[in-house]
Amino acid sequence: MGGVSRSGWLAALFAAVVAADQATKYAVAKLTDPGELRVLIPGLLNLTHTTNPGVAFGIFADGGAPWRAPLLICFSAAVMALIVWLLATDRAGGGLGRYGMTLILGGAAGNVLDRVLRQSVTDFIDFHLGAYHWYTFNVADSAIVAGAALVLFEMLRDWRHPHQERA
Predict the structure, then answer these.
(1) Which of 92, 111, 120, 157 could form a disulfide with 51 if both were Cys (CB 3.0 to 4.6 A apart)?
(2) Catalytic residue among 21, 114, 123, 126
(3) What average pLDDT values come out for the chain (167 residues) when binned by 10 residues?
């Protein structure tokens, strides 16, 4: 008997990202009021319950255009379909690329689920260092950034060493 297949690990990673994202958003929604701020690590990390009807960095968040949520859902679904196709056809690169794409897919799915259910995405991780204050984000956003970093790392590694076999 063999171990878990590669696609099994990728499916488990996808499910873990979506589950962690939705569980943390549920907990924040149940345990805090919108706009509430709780200091976790003074001068570094807060929990701040916010919602973002737009996309990353608050783009498209202003205004109440009725087309915004359906457009963002359709765009995200198209990107997710492309990632699934890349993974299914083994075009997602080597090991790091496949895991990176799966993290991106899980993060996108978590945020799309919010848009479908609530027309906005729940954000709550509020990181700052001195005067530098990052945009509030969530587990799905973290998975997307980590996944993109893995894909980029693999691309740079392959560019610098084009004749090495991928893992």
Answers:
(1) 120
(2) 123
(3) 76 97 96 94 94 66 67 90 94 90 97 91 92 91 96 85 56
